[in-house]
Design goal:
This protein is of the alpha+beta class. The protein folds into three domains: 166 residues, Sandwich (Jelly Rolls); 94 residues, Immunoglobulins (Immunoglobulin-like, Sandwich); 310 residues, TIM Barrel (Alpha-Beta Barrel). Helix content is 21%, strand content 29%. The chain has eleven helices and 35 strands. Strands 5-4-6-12-8-9 form a six-stranded antiparallel β-sheet, with no helix packed on it. Strands 27-28-29-30-31-32 form a six-stranded parallel β-sheet, covered by helices on one side. A hairpin with a 2-residue loop joins strand 24 and strand 25. Helix 9 packs parallel to helix 11. The longest helix is centred in the middle third of the chain and has 18 residues. It is globular.
Length: 634
Amino acid sequence: MRRRLAYVVAAVAAITALLVLPGLLGSGPGPPEGAAGQPPAAVEGTPSTIRRGPDGRRLLEGWRFRADPSDRGLGERWQRGSLRGRPVSLPHVPGGGAVTGRRGLRNFQGSVGWYRVPVAVERSGRYAIRFESAHHRAQVWLDGRRLGAHTGAYLPWEVRPQLEGGRRHQLTVRVDWRDPIGQKRDAWHRTWFNYGGLHREVTIRPLGASEVVAPTLRTRVRSGGEGAEVEVGVRVRNHGPSRRIAVEGVLTHAGRSIEIAFPAVRVGRGRSAKVRSTVMVAGPELWSPAQPALHDLRLEVPGESGWSGPVGLREISARGGRLMLNGRRLVLRGASLHEDAAGRGDGLLPADQDRIVAMLRRLGANATRAQHPLHPALLERLDAAGILVWQEVGPVDSPGNWTSTTPARRRRATRRVRTTLGEAQTHPSILAWNLANEVADNGHDQSQAAWIDGMARELHRSDPGRPVALDTWGEHLPAVPGRMYRNIDLIGTTDYVGWYELPHAPEGELVAEMDERLDRLRRLFPDKVLVVTEFGAEGNRRNPAARHGGFERQARLIDLHLRTYRRTPHLDGALVWNLTDFGVTPTFLGGSIVNQAPDIRLTRGLNEKGLWDRSGRPKPAVRVVRRRFAEWDR
């Protein structure tokens, strides 16, 4: 996508018990959030600054925000209590509604904002305050004392202060999302609008003598589906003296429970250890898009800590160039998504997440694609809906540039992959970990190829039950595949024939070009799964329907692609770009298509390839995609 867009640029923590008990810890995702606007219930026995959300999480509330465009807050020591601001609720994206025009350009350049919230707990002790994400650089103080800092959006992080019971503490957060060009230079370019703020929730939980974190789950389905071997792993951290720690677990579905016995393991103070156990499930109800059966997994160190969350039993594999789910061939059909809502930016509310799932269901989709780690609550909705996710976990823009620059940037990229894996591995909806977006040829240089190959091998070791993917730039495929592709299972590719490529060619020529490219892909990668992960066209009301940029032209081109893909036997799916229109840099005006179709009228600052516009209105292409996907089912 980099040649077209001239850009300037686990899971949620939850506590397994219902009451705040001394030393009890929850560190899992919990069930999906409730309906939008539903007021959270108060947590029993805790002060009013901490609320229990609809999904059981303990949310910090009572936030105030103050903009700091001249960056004077540090000099005036706002972190020491002099901060004043207006009440806001999280998620909060300053200026999130304006992505076009002068205001959009000003918002895109970024700013500085300060947040403050009172924190009061009933019992003294050490607590984990968890930020699901912040844009882009964040610093945190408690009562004027600096606790920590973080860089990078869509990645959860924590600070762990000692809190005094009965005292009203003040938590202050400074967020800086200036300089999108600098973000890009440091390999944090996100290829969409430069939103800022605390755009996901902040939660709190007490820390006990241990923690149960980063659970993993792998399912192997026996022949005929009569049984399943389920391997569960989890990391236990010890905050007490060196000792033997035993984790207990239970897997529950439809009133049936299976106990999971883990071996006790000795863990030193401040250390952690991974434990694993395998159980056999007879006659399992397997997770699939057609029947997204969910089980409840609970893991705990009795009396100390626990993790709880929904999981699915399913086996995904790539065999002989075919994508398989539970031993049957799986063909992906769907549309990619961005977390972007008009007026709120990427600070999605539960209603926004419900709307995304409803759109995918309306298409008859069984898959989607995301270029950044999705909100845990959205992933849980996709789990429940049976919609698979082609999940990107590495930098998405100019991947060769960041890998070839410094070892520090490669280390940051590795941490991003590992963080997402640790948070999201138990979600059955995640189909594959995608390491880079639109790589060209055999990579920018040897450092890119080496990083991708090494990271793919690590993912196979850490998560052997899930394929590793790579998105390629369809115009620039390698003459002969090199090291970069050696340990990749799924190859995605862009296909903008008829839009950026050959936009004025007749239909027959377009079909011939698509066929030739797909055949070349199969010759290059005879043993790998092939999926078209990006194709589409801009569409809005400003252009005549049948002209470039018009609704009819968009629908016809997408229809031509889907008809071609369906009759291509060696292709295992197609994902339209994109589900909805979304904000990008305000200087973007469609990319190279404006040179080839100079009369086209596009909205500066929006990517209008969505099947729905940014206000949620469906375009005619929705009917076309729904009809073609229904044919793929037959």
